[in-house]
């Protein structure tokens, strides 16, 4: 089940026998890091040299969750991606995958600044070889404020595509993430974030809260009528 909240504003997705729920929130337009108040670690890739690399030592190691990446294309920030318009970004080109395998601390939060989105950009979560959920990032209806690069010196460029930071909460926990480009073009990403949400109830209360707001609004309309 996927629950989606755009701009903290939700998708619940049941995937396979594992019956994992994945909750997705999107930060406000232009926000390029997570604003959730959980314990997290962020990999910006800025310490790496542009080119094809296989990073095995990242910011995640100090978090207690060392990660092994498949071959990774490190690029300098441009109109298509790179948080803050500086430093590096990662791009998955044509038909390919960026496979990130974690060891150590069990994880249930994942975040990513995904830029220049197209219909071929997919994020999938696994426990070992068991697929928990797979999410196409253009399945969510994001408003016009998400169009184009939001950061100088590339502000407003590539205005036909969306730029957004996605938060994922995977109830079953994950140890592998696959970011896929399923066709021509690229999947540009940055500020890859991992973490541990202390209590699943935290996100459940968020969903209940949104539901109560909707119920109250409908009740006011009925009373007014």
Written overview of the protein:
The chain has one helix and 13 strands, in the order βββββββββββββα. Strands 1, 2, 3, 4, 5, 6, 7, 8, 9, 10, 11, 12 and 13 form a 13-stranded mixed sheet that branches. Mean pLDDT is 82; it is low at 1-18 and 205-225. It has one helix at residues 201-224, and strands at residues 2-6, 11-15, 20-26, 39-43, 51-53, 67-69, 72-76, 88-102, 107-115, 121-127, 130-136, 164-174, 176-196. The chain is mostly beta strands and 225 residues long. Helices cover 11% and strands 46% of the residues. The protein starts with a strand and ends with a helix. It has a single domain, classed as Jelly Rolls (Sandwich), CATH 2.60.120.200. It is globular and about 40 Å long.
How would you briefly describe this protein structure?
This protein has 225 residues and is mainly beta. It has one helix spanning 201-224, and strands spanning 2-6, 11-15, 20-26, 39-43, 51-53, 67-69, 72-76, 88-102, 107-115, 121-127, 130-136, 164-174, 176-196.
């Amino acid at each position: 089940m996927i629950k989606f909240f755009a701009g903290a504003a939700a998708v619940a997705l049941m995937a396979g026998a594992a019956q994992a729920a994945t909750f997705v929130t999107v930060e406000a337009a232009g926000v390029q890091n997570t604003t959730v108040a959980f314990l997290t670690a962020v990999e910006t890739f800025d310490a790496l040299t542009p080119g094809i690399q296989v990073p095995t030592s990242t910011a995640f190691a100090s978090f207690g969750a060392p990660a092994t990446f498949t071959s990774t294309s490190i690029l300098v920030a441009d109109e298509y991606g790179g948080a803050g318009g500086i430093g590096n970004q990662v791009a998955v080109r044509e038909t390919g995958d960026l496979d990130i395998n974690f060891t150590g601390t069990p994880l249930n939060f994942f975040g990513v600044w995904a830029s220049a989105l197209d219909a071929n950009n997919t994020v999938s979560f696994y426990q070992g070889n068991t697929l928990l959920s797979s999410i196409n990032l253009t399945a969510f209806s994001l408003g016009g404020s998400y169009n184009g690069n939001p950061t100088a010196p590339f502000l407003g460029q590539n205005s036909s595509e969306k730029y957004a930071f996605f938060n994922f909460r995977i109830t079953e926990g994950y140890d592998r993430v696959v970011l896929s480009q399923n066709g021509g073009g690229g999947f540009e990403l940055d500020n890859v974030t991992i973490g541990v949400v202390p209590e699943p109830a935290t996100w459940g209360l968020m969903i209940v809260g949104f539901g109560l707001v909707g119920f109250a609004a409908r009740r006011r309309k009925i009373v007014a009528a």
